[in-house]
Amino acid sequence: MSLTNPLEARLLLGNELRRLRRAAGLTMHQVAEHLDCSDSRISRLENGKLTGAVLKPVELRRLAVLFGVTDETAVDDLLRLLSESETTAWWAPYEDVMPSGLDSVLGMQTAAHRERAPETLLVHSLLQTADYTRALLEGSGFHSPAAVERLVALRGRRPEVLHKPENPLNLEVVLDEAALRRPVGSPKIMREQLRAIIATVQALSNVTVLVLPFASGAHAGLSGAFSLFDIGDQPTVAYVDSPAGNLLLHGEREVRQLADAYQRIRRRALGQQESLRFIDQVAKET
Fold first, then answer.
1. For 96-224, where are the E strands, in sequence order?
2. Where is the HTH cro/C1-type domain positioned along the sequence (predicted)?
3. Are 237 and 108 in contact (CB under 8 A)?
4. Which of 34, 56, 75, 276 is the most exposed place for a label (fewest CB within 10 A)?
5. Torsion of CA 257, 214, 179, 125, to 10 degrees
6. How far apart are CA 55 and CA 74, in angstroms?
7. Domains and CATH numbers, the chain
8. What is the pLDDT of residues 224-241, one digit of tens each?
């Protein structure tokens, strides 16, 4: 199988190296000593966080020997993943204007078969119209007019993951009522944005949008935005967005806490059809 997403290849390679290390009864420190590198490099390698040339082929072969991998086919599979982890991502032309951490989100959305996300303040990025995105970026004051237009063009490509002919991303979003009523741009832009959400849900069976009304009161999503990504049979990965920085979380305990929080939020949301009627009503009131 050929991968088109370097992040997916890094995650697969890291997971396999972690599995092999544990099967060999070795610690990350022992592996680091073998490669004459820091423990943190091995940790980042196993978590898919290293970018660019994550390992030299000769280093990977040394690890295979250390882990007792003698099957050349298995070694070739590891080398293939290493090669694919260094390919150019589709978003590379926009990297000079991309906010820090966005590449991780794009990689996850490209590789994952499912994303679950509570959105408290804004419409989810994969559901945004170009005018909504433009108004949002202009309102932030962080970007030049030229950068805004390039980021709008990037945002326009992002929903392609929902339309892939094979294995499209299954997206489930819980939208707080605040995200529907917060003015971003003109009333016309907001009406078109809300109607676009309805049209997307009605057109794509792999997209679910649930509304969490103000009447539901305080909920776990108010603590901050996050997304849960499922990639194949790998453990769920969480992405946390915050002013202090964006984080990919792989730890079982951390991810489980966020998954439990999402389920609590989801249980308090309206059903799909009732949510669409709610969004339509807000559009009429806007």
1. 114-119, 170-176, 207-212
2. 17-78
3. yes
4. 56
5. 30
6. 17
7. 6-84 (1.10.260.40), 99-285 (3.30.870)
8. 889 999 987 778 989 887
